[in-house]
Write the structure tokens for this entry.
Amino acid sequence: MQYFPAPLQELADQFARLPGIGGKTAQRLAFYVLGLPAQEAQAFADAIVEAKKTVHTCPVCQNLTDRPICPICDDELREKSVICVVAEPRDVIALERSREFRGLYHVLHGVISPLNHITQDDIRVKELLQRVAQGGVEEVIMATNPDTEGEATAMYISRLLRPMEVKVTRLAYGVPVGSQLEYADEVTLSRALEGRQEI
């Protein structure tokens, strides 16, 4: 038995396809959109269509942009000799918020994950190697997540870059600011000790 009109059910089904959205949340979102004034609902739909139509990957760094080249790659003040490799576009946003990194980025759009059938051919490794091969790059910073897939991806890329005579570094990991040592796990404490600095 169908409880909702077919178009409403289709809307809920589309929301349910989004990552992290379950059936109940999808229904709530569908009812919310249905309750919007027609003008707001149209603006919401237009924003989805416009983003899908105009946003693409930057041909240089593979980050998302609506320009021919993204603003970071196009910025003459950025340090061109350092590339920070991240897994996803949202990682660029996180690093940019820190206002500490002034180099360029390379977005892989994923990490190597055999369990999820994602291989090195499914992510943007080839494009990174082409950038480094063009010259001018002195350091590549691996900023993938410190989990199994992120570590495997970082190690794989570092092995590919070794013959290119470029310095490959990894982000330091340690105890988060504001936390207490007693709650940190062994791996985090080990990384914190390895990455210690003189003060």
About this structure: The chain has a mean pLDDT of 91. The chain has two domains: 6-54, 64-172+187-192.
